[in-house]
Amino acid sequence: MAITAFLPGIRYVGVNDRTTHLFEGLWSLPQGVSYNAYLVIGEKIALIDTVEEAFGSRLFQHIREEIGDRRIDYLVVNHMEPDHSSSIAALRQLYPDITIVGNAKTLHMIAGYYGICDGTLEVKEGDTLDLGGKTLTFQLVPMVHWPETMVTWCAEEQTLFSGDAFGTFGALDGGITDSQVEVDRYWNEMRRYYACIVGKYGAPVQKALQKVRTLPVATICPTHGPVWQRHIAEVIDLYDRMSRYEGEKGVVVAYASMYGNTEQTAERIARSLVEEGVEKIVVYNLSVADPSVVLRDVFRYDTLVVGSPTYNGELFPPVEQLLRRIETRCIPHRNFACFGSFTWAGAAVRRMKEFSERMKWEMIGTPVEMKQGYSQAVCEPCRALARDIAARMRETK
Ligand code: FEO
After folding, report:
1. 99-102 and 120-122 beta bridge pairing
2. The pLDDT value given to residue 397
3. Cα–Cα distance measured from residue 82 to residue 86, given in angstroms and rounded to the nearest whole number
4. Is 271 exposed, middle or buried (0-12, 13-18, 19+ CB in 10 A)?
5. Which of 52, 212, 329, 340 could bridge across to 349 with cysteines, CB 3.0–4.6 Å?
């Protein structure tokens, strides 16, 4: 049996993108990404989602390989972001009789994006579509990741077409299901995907998880990454922990430095943390680090230490950008400490204190604030800050 037919009547027809540098024009794709689409074949046929427009011809080729000249009766649009919807207009030209299925918000967006207003079927929470031998049930999961988002449940195969939920960066290297690919390389990509794409929407993800838990799910078909069968419990657990913003024990030291003085402070604090018994530390120079990787680890670990020079009376721009990204994702709790530098008038530490107040994060210890060059005089304040950070980490579970 072809691996595209991983369940009776369900076919994978998605594509890999190993060319695009930046997903959403923002987030790196060192291992590519897949845009997943699926056929559900009963007496009638439904296509679940499409793919990014540049790969539309491959989607259509994959469909023909699976069903030849048979017609597709329905397109179910679980999510309207164009990485999944931008082949809809071309699909409509190839299959002019296809009925496009979505909720009211979806259909409004299809009209706005693609000018398609006819041949549609509006569905509501809990509605079903009988394909003859396969039944699709629709559940709305708004803000996972856009307001129109829904998931589709096929009871006969205990399969959830989950949209972006449970998705991950990383193309599919040959296999499609999690028993056909090297699954370990996807966990960090799932964290990075979650932090960058879905990270703002923790509460809606929690609501969606409550719905998923009521279903006897045996297969999860997301819009990106492997089809999950063997590792469903781990995938749900990871999404659960990330959407509760739960951090593992560990420290992210994120700094930027113009001439190396703030960098030496970062190194000293990281070294002192090890001396205080902290086991997991990752250090990033924000001027060169991949922002998506830094954000991933801010989601992953429970403690964040940020360092910045004062620049034009403000934070250094890469630091400002990280803090802004954290703020827009509404991360409700982290152990937080900071350090900074200036030459004639300090502002960076003040700005980071203001950040912690806006986030309602209680700041740990006394910020290390260095005037002009790094020297021995900075070492003891760094050790003291590391002691306070380690103590806070021991206190928090
Ligand atoms: Fe993969 Fe929110 O689109």
Report:
1. parallel
2. 67
3. 5
4. middle
5. 340
On whether the pTM is more than 0.90, the answer is yes
Residue 344 CA, ligand 1 centroid: distance in Å:
46
For residues 373-382, average pLDDT? 95
Question: Residue 383 has what pLDDT?
Answer: 98
Assess contact for 134 and 91: CB atoms under 8 A.
no
Residue with CA at minimum distance from ligand 1 atom 3:
81
Which ligand 1 atom sits nearest the alpha carbon of residue 164? 1
Radius of gyration of the chain (CA): 24
Q: Scanning the structure block, which residue is given the tokens 């009209």? A: 111
Q: Which residues line ligand 1 (CB under 6 A)?
A: 79, 81, 83-84, 145, 164, 223-224
Write down all domains in the chain, each with its CATH number in brackets: 10-243 (3.60.15.10), 248-392 (3.40.50.360)
Confidence of residue 174 (pLDDT cuts 50, 70, 90): very high
Question: Which ligand 1 atom sits nearest the alpha carbon of residue 149?
Answer: 2
Q: How many CB atoms lie within 10 A of CB 107?
A: 21
